[in-house]
Design brief:
single chain; alpha+beta; 25% strand; 163 residues; two-stranded antiparallel ribbon
Length: 163
């Protein structure tokens, strides 16, 4: 059983009366203490049902969002992350903006050692857009790691068929 200190301010997990936000809601994000701060390890979230709105046409955009991070002291609680990602449903922004906003909100929330966010959006007008952004804590080995990952990102792109 986790202590109250370890749980931080988690109020959404297990709460069945939570309402899904209908507007962009970074304030819904919650954290808990990383019990393995001495270890460097990845945590990866896959959100295959992400939706947002085109800021020009208002039409829906669909994507799989992949978030990977190396935590330091805080970790994001998954239900709050799910609700946060859902809050983009009526949010109008370009694909590149969405992934950068997600990354920046998570950096502000957790101050991770390293984080990357990759959006694989379904095609519109015959073209798909897959923005990728990352961050490594400045002045640490993670800053160099981020640069390396960015330079070598997507070296072997997948075969696109009907996505």
């Amino acid at each position: 059983m986790r202590t109250k200190k370890e749980m931080g301010s988690i109020s959404l997990l297990g709460n069945q009366k939570v309402k899904y936000p209908d507007n962009y809601a970074p304030q819904i994000l919650e954290t808990f203490e990383n019990k393995h701060q001495g270890n460097d390890y990845f945590v990866k979230f896959n959100c295959p049902e992400f939706t947002s709105l085109c800021p020009i046409t208002g039409q829906p955009d669909f994507a799989a969002i992949y978030i990977s991070y190396i935590p330091d002291k805080k970790m994001v609680e998954s239900k709050s992350l799910k609700l946060y990602l859902f809050s983009f449903r009526n949010h109008g922004d370009f694909h590149e903006d969405c992934v950068n906003i997600i990354m920046k909100d998570l950096i502000k929330l957790m101050n991770p050692k390293y984080i990357e966010v990759w959006g694989k959006f379904t095609p519109r007008g015959g073209i798909s857009i897959d923005p990728y952004c990352n961050y490594g804590r400045p002045g640490t080995k993670w800053e160099k790691f981020a640069f390396h990952r960015l330079l070598h990102h997507d070296m072997y792109p997948e075969k696109i068929d009907n996505r």
